[in-house]
Amino acid sequence: GQNIDQPTEMTATEGAIVQINCTYQTSGFNGLFWYQQHAGEAPTFLSYNVLDGLEEKGRFSSFLSRSKGYSYLLLKELQMKDSASYLCAVMDSNYQLIWGAGTKLIIKP
Amino acid sequence: IAGITQAPTSQILAAGRRMTLRCTQDMRHNAMYWYRQDLGLGLRLIHYSNTAGTTGKGEVPDGYSVSRANTDDFPLTLASAVPSQTSVYFCASSDSAGGTNGYTFGSGTRLTVV
Questions:
Q1: Which helix (H) or strand (E) element contains residue B8?
Q2: What is the enclosing helix (H) or strand (E) of A48?
Q3: For labelling, which of A42, A104, B23, B27 has a CA lying 20 to 30 Å from the CA of B3?
Q4: pLDDT tens for each residue of chain A, 109 residues long
Q5: Residue A77 distance to chain B (closest CA, Å)
Q6: How many CA atoms lie within 13 A of A8 on its CB side?
Q7: What is the pLDDT of residues A36-62, one digit of tens each?
Q8: Which residues of A73-97 are buried (b: 16+ CB within 10 A; e: fewer)?
Q9: Residue A24 phi/psi, 5° resolution?
Q10: Which residues of B touch A98 (CB under 8 A)?
Q11: Could B98 and A30 be called an inter-chain contact, meaning their C-beta atoms sit closer than 8 Å?
């Protein structure tokens, strides 16, 4: 079966760095996406990785290792507005997104 | 403002009633999707459409139907609502099936079936 695993909840301090991990087992792989979802709102696109390595986009970076079925989202210089759920999704061989349940990130002052 | 519009924002529906959730996009995206989001679960695909005139079943299609008569509109119909269909429903679109620019989501419809 297809499976995306990510921690249910994480807590971090304002100004710090946090790494949210995602492991996956899917039928085929056509890229991995990270989305941010604030409570009561729609998910918004953060990043896309299809090749191994680190993609940096401002305070957010995303890493992929296809051989390990592993990705992480790195958030630097945390701000209170970063409190949200972070969703990992893998595009399978049918070009459909398989979604993890999301990681709720709580930022404390 | 380009994006996706969903209606209604929320609805309380009696079990057994028929309801259509509306979704309209103005980005000329080819692919559109309907998801449901339940607490503790990932987004689950109900139905999708890779291009106008075609539709496909997702992971949880039972009890739902869709149509894609044109590029912009992708309504989702619950023929006879049941309490297990209580959920938040998101419509999304992408420039193409398998597009790497990410999906754009509507603001969601919170549906309660009683």
A1: none
A2: strand A44-49
A3: A104
A4: 789 999 999 999 999 999 999 999 998 999 999 999 999 999 999 999 999 999 999 999 999 999 999 999 999 999 999 999 999 999 998 888 999 999 999 999 9
A5: 25
A6: 3
A7: 999 999 999 999 999 999 999 999 999
A8: bebeebeeebbbbbbbbbbbeebbb
A9: -140, 150
A10: 42
A11: yes
Sheet holding A18-25, edge to edge: A3-5, A18-25, A70-75, A60-65, A53-57
| Amino acid identity at B36 | R
Decide the pairing of beta strands A84-91 and A32-37: antiparallel
Contact B107 A41 (CB under 8 A): yes
Distances (CA, A) of A36 to A42, A100, B108: 8, 12, 15
Radius of gyration of chain B, Cα coordinates, nearest whole angstrom: 13
What mean pLDDT is predicted for residues B102-108? Answer: 95
Question: Smallest Cβ distance to B100: which of A4, A48, A96?
Answer: A48
The amino acid present at B67, given as its one-letter code, is: S
In whole angstroms, give the CA distance from residue B78 to residue B64: 5
pLDDT one-digit tens code per residue, B78-96: 999 999 999 999 999 999 8
Report the pLDDT value the prediction gives residue B42, as an integer from 0 to 100: 85
The Cα–Cα gap between B69 and B65 comes to 13
Rounded-to-integer distance, Cα B19 and Cα B108, Å? 15
Distance from CA of A68 to the nearest CA of B (A): 21
Question: In the prediction, which pLDDT does A17 show?
Answer: 98
* Nearest by Cα to B92 from A87, A5, A59, A61: A87
